[in-house]
Amino acid sequence: MDFSLSDTERETRNWVRTFVQREIMPLEPLALRRERNHQPGLTSEEMAELRHKARQSGFWGVQTPEEYGGMALSAVMTALIEAELGRSFIPFRFGGYADNILFHANDEQKAEYLLPTIEGDRVSCFAVTEPGAGSDATAIRTTARRDGSDWIINGEKTFITGGNEADFTMVFAITDADKGVNGGVTCFLADRDMGWKSEYIDTMGEWGPAALIFDEVRVPERNVLGEVGQGFALAMQWIGRGRYLLPARAIGACERLIEMAMEHARNRVTFGEPIAERQAIQWMVADSATELEALRWLVLSAAWQVDQGLDSRQAQSMAKLYGGVRANEIVDRMLQIHGGMGYTRELPIERWYRELRLLRIYEGTDEIQRRTISRNLLKGHVSIRGLLG
Ligand SMILES: Cc1cc2nc3c(=O)[nH]c(=O)nc-3n(C[C@H](O)[C@H](O)[C@H](O)COP(=O)(O)OP(=O)(O)OC[C@H]3O[C@@H](n4cnc5c(N)ncnc54)[C@H](O)[C@@H]3O)c2cc1C
């Protein structure tokens, strides 16, 4: 069994590590100051500037196929990259990205939506969740009815990431109530200027998702993504595109948090000794480092299974569940080691504390991951002996 990285993987990982250290981390104090004043940490122009810098070094479209100018990197490499990016709380993502389901677009739609999204000229959002349909996406109520050669969409979506910034959405609506999710849901590419509205939702994180309101929004037939009635499968494909990527980012956050806490523990003296000499502190470091190591291998194993073309759903759910729960415990312990300073907004720890909480909720809550994991086992789809059998 070989757990080592290839030379190319190491070089690519190190390039991203250096990029994060040189280009992103120096912006952190500024971002924290702005966020304390209720402004975005970095403006969209500053983010675009960072993406541009990376592109000049050939870093563009991490998982995007080469025919679209991307790097088409493996899932393992992408997980390693996400972990490096996660070392900063600044939510940077390399450019050249487009949602996986947009690659199902026809040629006309590719020219209008996919290519400009990859180029960064258009911004998409993915809209399934509704006030009455979150974990149970089969309960969506948004409708689309035919009107001549158009569709008229009515309904409300909620918690849509990027919904305030997007100029088009991939929105999922019921087109055949009798069939429901079995052939009665369709995905539409709906431009903001076709009439949908977004409303900012204030959350405990630093960026807010949006509610999207569709009130008689007219969308032409040519904007159906994929086939009429086949939208639910597209939604599931989007959600399943890489569950391992969310906990991959948490790896980087946990590494940085533990490093910060160790540094603090070596320097902070109480009762005549650095707190690093106290067993209470050492155990928090030991438990966190052990859990981080376990998380690292859960994520990389899930990514490796994706690369091998195996059914990785169980591994991805386990990585997402473990990552969400453990990262939240780790950030809590590292905040504790920092004492009062950990609770301030001078340091990014409380920010990570708020941000990492989301990992237990979106793209499948802890409870939904547990449901998936236990069902797969109880129904005999997977073995308790895991990948090795
Ligand atoms: C910041 C943020 C960004 C998001 N971005 C997007 C986005 O871009 N696009 C999008 O479509 N959605 C998005 N979501 C929605 C997200 O996926 C849902 O919030 C999530 O799936 C949970 O749904 P819910 O909030 O309706 O909770 P509910 O489904 O109402 O669940 C409430 C509680 O009940 C538990 N529960 C539910 N069913 C079961 C069960 N069968 N057994 C045991 N427990 C259960 C849940 O785990 C949870 O603890 C986002 C959410 C947030 C907070």
From TrEMBL:
- All residue ranges annotated as the Acyl-CoA dehydrogenase/oxidase N-terminal domain in the record: 6-121
| Key words, A-Z | FAD, Flavoprotein, Oxidoreductase
Alphabetical list of SUPFAM superfamilies matching this protein: Acyl-CoA dehydrogenase C-terminal domain-like, Acyl-CoA dehydrogenase NM domain-like
Residue intervals of the Acyl-CoA dehydrogenase/oxidase C-terminal domain: 229-378
Q: Which PROSITE patterns match?
A: ACYL_COA_DH_1, ACYL_COA_DH_2
User: Which stretches make up the Acyl-CoA oxidase/dehydrogenase middle domain?
Assistant: 125-195
- Report whether Flavoprotein shows up as a keyword of the record: yes
Cofactor names from the entry are: FAD
- InterPro entries given in the database record: Acyl-CoA_dehydrogenase (IPR050741), Acyl-CoA_DH_CS (IPR006089), Acyl-CoA_Oxase/DH_mid-dom (IPR006091), Acyl-CoA_Oxase/DH_mid-dom_sf (IPR046373), AcylCo_DH-like_C (IPR036250), AcylCo_DH/oxidase_C (IPR009075), AcylCoA_DH/ox_N (IPR013786), AcylCoA_DH/ox_N_sf (IPR037069)
Tell me its family: Belongs to the acyl-CoA dehydrogenase family.
What name is this protein filed under?
Medium-chain specific acyl-CoA dehydrogenase, mitochondrial
